[in-house]
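Feature request, filed as a ticket because there's no other form

It would be nice if the structure record came with a short human-readable summary line next to the tokens. Right now we just get the raw output. Example of a typical job, pasted below so the devs can see what we mean:
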Amino acid sequence: MNQQIDTLMHDYTGNVPGASVLVLRDGALLVHRSYGMADMEAHVAATPLTNYRLASVSKQFTAASILLLAEDGRLHLDDKVRDWLPTLPHVADPITIRHLLTHTSGLIDYEDVMDPADARQVHDADVLKLLESQDRTYFVPGTGYRYSNSGYALLALIVERASKQRYADFLRERIFRPLGMANTVAYEAGISEVARRAYGYSFENGAWMRTDQSTTSAVLGDGGIYSSIDDLARWDAALYDERLLKSTSLQQAFTPFTATDDPDVRYGYGWRITGETLWHSGETIGFRNVIVRYPKRHMTVIVLTNRDDPEPYVLAKKIAEAASP
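Raw output as currently delivered:
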């Protein structure tokens, strides 16, 4: 089987931006391999301990944070978002936390209202400021679906206000540390560091160029977590029992709440649901990642890469096929 996986991962092998691949079945490591380089300039090879920027795979941790606070009684999923973030315009009056979780809020995409001449990185609090000036939504909240990074940035701010902790601290103390995810971090430049960090690359003009950060890379709630396949194995294990979240909370997260723009895909809380799979991809400048879970088979495939192309969802499904009994 490993030879089949190596063949599938051929393009990530050698002096090129790399990848780490994990296949778990019944909690056992079937595939636990890395390819290529985590840092091309320093000639550092990728390993299973390499930490990649998860991009939108981070959203499942944001959703889990909200569910933990709901279990604590600190908030309710049907709370109005303006009860927590009152500086939002009145057009946001109908929007609930549940709408944010399921991309049914209709909020304007913050990326579309950023000043293109401003090279500074925006943070979650800046997303709120950008949205304060938007007196429209794409649709009446709750009546449609539009994938929303804005919504998940606001969820991170709600976590901070409900917990009275910084979002990165809440993640560390309530999720990462209890699960033994020792090197997973919501990365904040100048505040935290990423151990064994993979840097992102894009193929430009016939060569790999480092493209590790963009103006949106510092927003945490929608995509700012770094992790490794080793730590994500611990996360996956926690999704089968109640070591982190109650079974009722997990069931909510994995329930197909809304249709999406793909007729084969529905959305829960931080998870896409397609047939027998729970999955989520992550795409950002220099990184493409995916986690695909097959709960009934008790199998999970994770592919983390530090390059801009291709998206590894199809690759992960081929790996799952190769690893299936």
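Something like this underneath would help us a lot:
The chain has a mean pLDDT of 97.
The chain has ten helices and 15 strands.
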